[in-house]
């Protein structure tokens, strides 16, 4: 099987690995001109552009009245989904909500000895738009991504949450997607996909009100549109293809490790699956398991391409070297398939999410446990975090200083303003320090 085998003993081995990964980490700008054209169409033509683009790429008979999903359609979908599946979905929503409740922020205030009252006022944004990929022509919608994006927005207290997802060829949306929207109490759902859906959320049209923040994964067109609209609207992150790194010792089960690598490889030809093992005997066993399991996968062609281009089996002489490589890779998902993962956790600085031990594979986090699965990719876990309640709130600084504060600290402020050559700043302070103490009640 064409999966490269490498060795990493120290930072001296990093340049070779980095040169290989740069091909994956380098942004793809090939569609930028096309996406800019789509954004301009939606900005200038509004709903007309949304209809034309949807007809061209998704549904030939798409009409204006089809953009917004009606409440009756949502209710019918909820009734059409089997009760046992609704129970599973409701439990997943509850788990994700419970986890994100711990992320709630509260306004805070501090009164200093000089009488100044300082603090931060926490407020949610007003409107959020969620992009939900349809998946293989609407047959496999990313309902888990809808849960992971909607729940933190709801916990944050956002006034209105709107979801967009590309229509199937007949103009419908998968009933599971609509049923989850009902469970999440999403306020609006629109049959829109690709870059024009993102543009509609950012600019607003007659049918689709503009939002303040856009969140959710998507293809290169969606990701490029979000990147180009930064500043016009808030976004969660610039996400790339999925990735997993597994740090394993001799206690790891090679069949399980192979299954976990394939769980990412089947996503996308650009997905990365990397094993770092301190046990050189584990690597050939995992390689054999990958070959055996690949033949059983419906998405074997995609997984094979992913492993050939971005898969690796890497031997590290000890766990310190393995952890060092993990931190340089800064992966989206990290599995610690170790006899004692808790002893190694302290060595990990850079990872979107860490899965502890042999019985905690990555899909546990993808679907059910509660932590968010919208995570930084392409090495950005060095400085970025997964989606959370914080993505949907604003922090407003509050400053209240009495007259005595200005008399005590005014000269220092005036001097700092003078050092920057900002005379009006200095006068704003000095006029209050030289005039008679003024209070509104003096009038």
The amount of helix comes to 40-55%
Low-confidence stretches: none
Please state the overall shape, judged from the principal axes of the Cα atoms: globular
> Number of helical segments?
17
Strand order of the largest sheet: 1-11-10-9-12-13
Domain module count:
3
How is the biggest beta sheet arranged? 6 strands, parallel
| CATH level 1 name of the largest domain | Alpha Beta
Q: What is the CATH topology assignment of the largest domain? A: Rossmann fold
Identify the CATH homologous superfamily of the largest domain: Nitrogenase molybdenum iron protein domain
Regarding quaternary structure, what we see is single chain
Q: Give the CATH architecture of the largest domain.
A: 3-Layer(aba) Sandwich
Let me know the number of strands: 14
State the end-to-end CA separation.
86 Å
Strand content: 15-25%
Structural class given helices, strands, pairing?
A: alpha/beta
Mean pLDDT: 94
Radius of gyration: 26 Å
Task: Provide a short characterization of the protein structure.
This protein is α/β, with parallel strands linked by helices and 443 residues long. It contains 17 helices and 14 strands. The protein has 3 domains: 4-22 and 241-383, Nitrogenase molybdenum iron protein domain (Rossmann fold, 3-Layer(aba) Sandwich), CATH 3.40.50.1980; 46-235, Nitrogenase molybdenum iron protein domain (Rossmann fold); 401-442, no CATH class.
């Amino acid at each position: 099987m064409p999966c490269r085998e490498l060795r990493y003993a120290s930072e001296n081995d990093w340049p070779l690995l980095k040169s290989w990964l740069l091909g994956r980490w380098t942004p793809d700008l090939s569609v930028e001109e096309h996406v800019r054209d789509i954004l301009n169409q939606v900005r200038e033509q509004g709903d007309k552009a949304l209809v034309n683009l949807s007809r061209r790429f998704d549904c030939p008979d798409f009409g204006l009245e089809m953009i917004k999903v009606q409440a009756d359609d949502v209710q019918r979908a909820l009734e059409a989904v089997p009760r046992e599946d609704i129970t599973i979905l409701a439990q997943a929503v509850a788990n994700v909500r419970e986890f994100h409740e711990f992320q709630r922020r509260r306004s805070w205030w501090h009164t200093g000895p000089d009488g100044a009252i300082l603090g931060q006022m926490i407020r949610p944004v007003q409107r959020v738009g969620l992009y939900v990929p349809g998946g293989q022509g609407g047959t496999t919608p990313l309902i888990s991504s809808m849960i992971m994006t909607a729940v933190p927005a709801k916990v944050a207290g956002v006034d209105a949450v709107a979801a967009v997802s590309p229509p199937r060829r007949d103009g419908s949306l998968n009933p599971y997607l609509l049923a989850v929207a009902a469970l999440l109490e999403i306020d609006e759902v629109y049959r829109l996909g690709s870059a024009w859906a993102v543009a509609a959320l950012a600019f607003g049209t007659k049918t689709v009100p503009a939002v303040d923040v856009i969140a959710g994964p998507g293809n290169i067109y969606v990701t490029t549109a979000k990147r180009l609209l930064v500043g016009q609207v808030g976004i969660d992150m610039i996400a790339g293809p999925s990735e997993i790194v597994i740090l394993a010792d001799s206690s790891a089960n090679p069949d399980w490790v192979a299954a976990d690598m394939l769980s990412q490889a089947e996503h996308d030809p650009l997905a990365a699956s990397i094993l770092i093992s301190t046990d050189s005997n584990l690597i050939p066993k995992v390689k054999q398991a990958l070959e055996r399991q690949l033949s059983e996968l419906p998405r074997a062609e995609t997984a094979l391409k992913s492993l050939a281009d971005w898969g690796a089996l890497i031997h590290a002489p000890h766990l310190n070297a393995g952890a060092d490589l993990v931190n340089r890779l800064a992966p989206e998902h990290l599995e610690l398939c170790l006899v004692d993962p808790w002893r190694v956790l302290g060595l990990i600085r850079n990872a979107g999410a860490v899965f502890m031990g042999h019985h905690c594979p990555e899909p546990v986090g993808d679907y059910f446990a509660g932590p968010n699965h919208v995570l930084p990719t392409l090495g950005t876990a060095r400085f970025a975090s997964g989606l959370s309640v914080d993505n949907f709130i604003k922090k407003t600084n509050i400053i209240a200083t009495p007259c005595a504060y200005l008399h005590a600290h005014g000269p220092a402020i005036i001097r700092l303003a003078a050092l920057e050559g900002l005379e009006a700043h200095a006068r704003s302070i000095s006029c209050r320090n030289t005039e008679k103490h003024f209070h509104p009640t003096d009038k």
